[in-house]
Structure formats: structure tokens, C-alpha cells
Specification:
The protein is globular, with a radius of gyration of 19 Å. Helix content is about 25%, strand content about 20%. α1 packs parallel to α3. The two termini are about 30 Å apart. By secondary structure, the protein is α+β, with helices and mostly antiparallel strands. It folds into two domains: about 60 residues, no CATH class; about 160 residues, Sulfite Oxidase, Chain A, domain 2 (Alpha-Beta Complex). The structure holds the ligand Nc1nc2c(c(=O)[nH]1)N[C@H]1C(S)=C(S)[C@@H](COP(=O)(O)O)O[C@H]1N2 and molybdenum atom (MO). Molybdenum atom binds next to loops.
Length: about 240
């Protein structure tokens, strides 16, 4: 029952934020039978349907042209705050000279990309707020290549629904195509004016300032364009998939 309560709280919080839809209404809109609530599997099905329904609402409300708030350099938080599903001393490193980003899925060109490839592309810089679902945040400066440019370069099918990411620490996550194409979504090479340090995602991390921090994967190893929901490490444990911030 504990799992159900966690999910119920996530759903409640979301709907408290978004407005006053009753759970029954949502269950009906989500196409599931409220009579289901009498069994464990039924409750599970209804709750997950609601979480997915909420993803659809968030996706629908998302406007690719709406930008995340930006800040002046004077507001940058130093030091930044490290987070991962393990402690900082366990952070892995790779040789930047041999590292490649594997490319897969619905793309025309699957050749892996090197750091030199990314350095050779147009760089975008931003000062934005990174917000962790655990309730803390910091303002930082990230720069790198807009993901939209990379998707264009590899000939990605922009009608596909998802862009999935794998990391060499066995983390993974995925985002919707409209968020992938949003201009502030960048494959980050530099943090605070210098190449990413290992704890903060070296050699390459995604930065999605319109979403919560767990949707910004560090230590990238692979990118895939797909119509099958790749899910994610925290998403699998019940965190809302869309997680707009
Ligand atoms: N590869 C990888 N990426 C990750 C994580 C992780 O454990 N591994 N943690 C996520 C979470 S929950 C947060 S809040 C941010 C933390 O980023 P930071 O270290 O720059 O604060 O990274 C996200 N990306
Ligand atoms: Mo997080």
C-alpha cells in the first residue's frame, strides 16, 4: 500500500498545482473504470493512468516558444550543489579524447559524435535555475550545443515522440520531442565558464531548464530518437515523467 500512497501524493500535488479536477473525473477522462478502485491492481492502474494523463496535460500546456527564466551573472550560486543517486566520491570519469556519444533510433546518421564534433558546433549559453524535486535549487551558467541543432545534424525524425538518453553511470531518462527542440535545451560542454567537472556531468550532460533536475542527465553515453517511451531511473520509481518546472 505504501507505493500507492506515494503515487497518490504525487498525483494530489500535481492536481493541487494545476487546478481542481477530482480524481474520479480524471480517472474517467483517463479512460479507466473507477470501480477498479476496489482492488490493489485496480488502484495501481487508476493511479498510473492519472500520472500518464497528467503527462498529456503537461505536454499539451507546454509551449516550445516559452522560455525558462534567466538570471544575471551576479545571481549565480557558488558553489553549485552536486547530486546523483550515489555519493560524489563514486563519480566515474572517462577519457575525453576517446569518449563518443552513441547515436541510435529514428535518425539518418548513426555515426557517434566526439567532443570535437560538439565543440565545432554553434554554442548557446544560459544562466538558469536548476531545481531538484527534493526541494533545493541553484542558479548556474551552462553552455553547449542546442539539442535541436544536434537532432538536425543527425537527421532525426522530429515527428518521433521521445529522445532518450543513457549515461555511463547506468542512469537514464527521456524527454518529449517538443522539449527536445526548445531552444534552451542544450547538450552542455561548459559549466561556469570551464569544461564540465566530473561531478557535474563531464564530458557531456543535457541541460533542460524547463524541467526538474532529474530530467537533465549527466555523463552521457547514448542518445536515441524513438516512439517507444524509454522511461527513466526516477520515472520508473514513480516520479512524474514530464516533470515541467
Ligand atoms: N547520469 C546521471 N545524471 C543525473 C543524475 C544521476 O544520478 N546520474 N541525477 C539527476 C538529479 S536527481 C539531479 S537533481 C541532477 C543534479 O545535477 P547537479 O549535480 O548538477 O546538481 O542531475 C540529474 N542527472
Ligand atoms: Mo534531483
Amino acid at each position: 500500500m505504501k507505493d500507492h500512497r506515494t503515487q497518490a501524493r504525487l498525483v494530489e500535488r500535481r492536481f493541487a498545482l494545476k487546478g481542481a479536477l477530482s480524481l474520479g473525473t480524471v480517472a474517467l477522462l483517463g479512460g479507466c473504470d473507477v470501480g477498479d478502485l476496489s482492488t490493489h491492481e485496480g488502484i495501481d492502474r487508476v493511479l498510473w493512468t492519472m500520472l500518464r494523463f497528467d503527462d498529456r496535460v503537461q505536454a499539451w500546456l507546454f509551449n516550445r516558444r516559452r522560455l525558462a527564466a534567466t538570471f544575471p551573472a551576479s545571481e549565480i550560486t557558488r558553489p553549485a550543489r552536486f547530486n546523483a543517486f550515489y555519493p560524489e566520491y563514486q563519480v566515474q570519469t572517462v577519457d575525453p579524447a576517446t569518449w563518443r556519444l552513441e547515436i541510435g533510433g529514428l535518425v539518418a546518421d548513426r555515426r557517434p559524435l566526439s567532443l570535437a564534433d560538439f565543440r565545432g558546433m554553434r554554442q548557446e549559453s544560459q544562466i538558469t535555475r536548476h531545481i531538484c524535486i527534493e526541494g533545493w535549487s541553484y542558479i548556474g551558467q551552462w553552455s553547449g550545443v542546442p539539442l535541436a541543432d544536434v537532432l538536425k545534424r543527425i537527421g532525426a525524425d522530429s515527428r518521433a515522440r521521445y529522445v532518450g538518453f543513457k549515461c555511463f553511470d547506468d542512469y537514464w531518462t527521456s524527454i518529449d520531442m517538443p522539449s527536445a527542440l526548445q531552444p534552451q535545451t542544450i547538450l552542455t560542454l561548459d559549466f561556469d565558464g570551464a569544461p564540465l567537472d566530473p561531478p557535474f556531468g563531464a564530458p557531456l550532460r543535457l541541460r533542460v531548464p524547463t524541467k526538474l533536475g532529474f530530467k537533465s542527465p549527466k555523463y552521457l553515453s547514448a542518445l536515441t530518437v524513438t516512439n517507444q517511451d524509454p522511461g527513466g531511473y526516477w520515472e520508473k520509481q514513480g516520479y512524474n515523467w514530464f516533470s515541467g518546472s
